[in-house]
Amino acid sequence: MIVILSSLLMYPPSAGRAHEVSPTIADFEVSEGQLTLTLRMNIEAFVAGIDLDGRADTNSSDKSGDYDLLRSMPEAELDPMLRLFLEDWLPELEITAGVPVPLQLHSLHIPKVGDASLPRSSELVLKGEVSGAAPYLSLTWPDRSGAVVLRQNGVPDPYTGYIAGGDRSALIALKGGAVQNGWQVFQSYLPVGFDHILQNGLDHILFVLGLFFLTLRLKPLLWQVSLFTLAHSITLALGALGVVHVNPTILEPLIAASIVFVAVENIFVRRVHSWRSLVIFGFGLLHGLGFASVLGDFGLPPDQMVPALLGFNVGVELGQLTVIALAYGCLGYWFAGYPKYRGRVAIPASLTIALIGGYWFAERVFL
């Protein structure tokens, strides 16, 4: 565990949202025999040739430099490169409605270069002809393209699905009726929350490890995690429903600062004090808003918001508990009774976490 933390310090990943891999959002509608598919995607990552399947951060790719260069390009320069990319990529985006549906680029919009700390979401509108007799449609999302959230529009009980790169959707009834029930929505959003923690949520993982390294006693550890869970569940719901919103340029540095605080406190404090509970609760509110921004990228089904929120939140909790279980299995189980555990394990690990959090804070504020 300490070796892993040390390697993160030597090669600290950029945790800004500009480098976080988010799924493509795909909305489709069939009207009068014509399919309209609207894609909202981080097109620079595609044009750069980054393999997005299973990737949490573009900085982990050897093509991250090309990605950063493309993000600084205005539309006039990026447009021809995008069209060239689509010549090879569009044939891999297979849609079948009885027979294959060839897609053509109808329009595209690339936003102006703005805040480099935020990802740029371009919009591509694709169109194709669908036979009026076709009852169903299915989509195959290309390999290396990450995940896509596929949403049907213009029909009662529309389909919503999450499809990984290289996978094919279920058959989607073009007249509607493919809506998921509450249990199915819960199951669909649970892995989204779990994957966010273990694949994309390194800052949240380090915060949870900061809680772990203060004490190996089960009761105070579970108390801290429970408070953190309660707090971020509140702001996750408020943020996802649009009741509360904090600018990411403010929120992300504060999340990094929370990591530094709990890690530094571990170095100077030997037990869980009552005031630490209030601090953890406050930081949990911040992390909940971070989770809400991720859930906002996926969107919530309007008629199934509660199951979706619950599924995502339970997935997050399972991810956090997995982190705690792995940390305990690697360290706590073997060294809990070791008299020099604090000096040789907990303090060095906490110091490493603090340094990583400090680097992220400086990066998010000044870079």
List its salient traits:
single chain, 367 residues, alpha+beta, six-stranded mixed sheet, four-stranded antiparallel sheet, 10 strands
Structural notes for this entry:
A hairpin with a 2-residue loop joins strand 1 (24-31) and strand 2 (34-41). The chain has helices spanning 2-10, 43-47, 64-71, 75-89, 182-200, 202-212, 218-240, 248-268, 274-298, 305-335, 341-366, and strands spanning 24-31, 34-41, 94-97, 99-100, 104-109, 122-129, 136-140, 148-152, 160-163, 172-173. The two termini are 29 Å apart. The protein is an alpha+beta fold and 367 residues long. The protein folds into 2 domains: 17-179, no CATH class; 183-366, no CATH class. Strands 5-6-2-1-8-9 form a 6-stranded mixed beta sheet, with no helix packed on it. Helix content is 53%, strand content 14%.
List segments where confidence is low: pLDDT < 50 over at least 5 consecutive residues.
6-17
Per DSSP, what share of the residues sits in E-state strands of 2 or more residues? 5-15%
Looking across the biggest beta sheet, what order are the strands in? 5-6-2-1-8-9
Number of continuous helical runs: 11
Report helical residue fraction: 40-55%
* Integer count of domains: 2
Task: Write the H/E string, N to C.
Answer: HEEHHHEEEEEEEEHHHHHHH
Structure summary, number of beta strands:
10
Distance between the termini: 29 Å
Classification by helices and strands = alpha+beta
Explain the layout of strands and helices:
Blueprint lengths: L1 H9 L13 E8 L2 E8 L1 H5 L16 H8 L3 H15 L4 E4 L1 E2 L3 E6 L12 E8 L6 E5 L7 E5 L7 E4 L8 E2 L8 H19 L1 H11 L5 H23 L7 H21 L5 H25 L6 H31 L5 H26 L1
Helix pairs in contact: 1-11, 5-10, 6-8, 6-10, 7-9, 8-9, 8-11
